[in-house]
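One such given next:
>
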Amino acid sequence: MYKSIIQQQHHDILFYVSMWFSIGILFNGFGSVNSEANSRRIAYVEQCFGASGQPLQVTGRVLVGEGVLTKLCRKKPKPRQFFLFNDIIVYGNILINKKKYNQQHIIPLEVVKLENVDDQANLRNGWKIISPSKSFVVFAATATEKSQWMSHINKCVSDLLLKNIEGTNDSSGEDSSDDEEGDGAADIAKNDPATQFHTYSDN
């Protein structure tokens, strides 16, 4: 009976919550911001969390995308606002959609791992976000959204870890950025069909 209630609640949430995801092409190299618009977006996220949230403006930090995911909580699935940065995941409760959030949580991406969750009845398109401090299951509205979220998170994690390794091993002081074939999260946005994302505009 409990499982049936959870499934129905999840179905209702997915019916009323429209899942969307935004990707901004904001930098030439990973973590190298070239747009003031990125700073304004991060400032707006800080504003939405208000005094209850932590400052998010950090040199080199890029707001990659955002959207609503259904988080499997102790009692029932609930919609949560998620923000994907190039180095952290931030999420919180939705008080007023796109205007006000609380209960901010921040997870460093360098310690994040993802695990697929099989579909079960109405509990579909889910995956587990695993970190040493906190692990939980989230669900997207569609299989496509799930794939996009997971690929973007994995890409940010792998690029962040690669950057850390290169920073540790680089003792020559030479700039090897021109040798890189990829360009971080920007590559993800370019490889996805334009119709699947709302691209941030710097205008």
Observations:
- The radius of gyration is 18 Å.
- Helices lie at 2-16, 36-49, 143-169, 185-191.
- The CA atoms of residues 107 and 133 lie 8 Å apart.
- DSSP finds four helices and eleven strands in the chain.
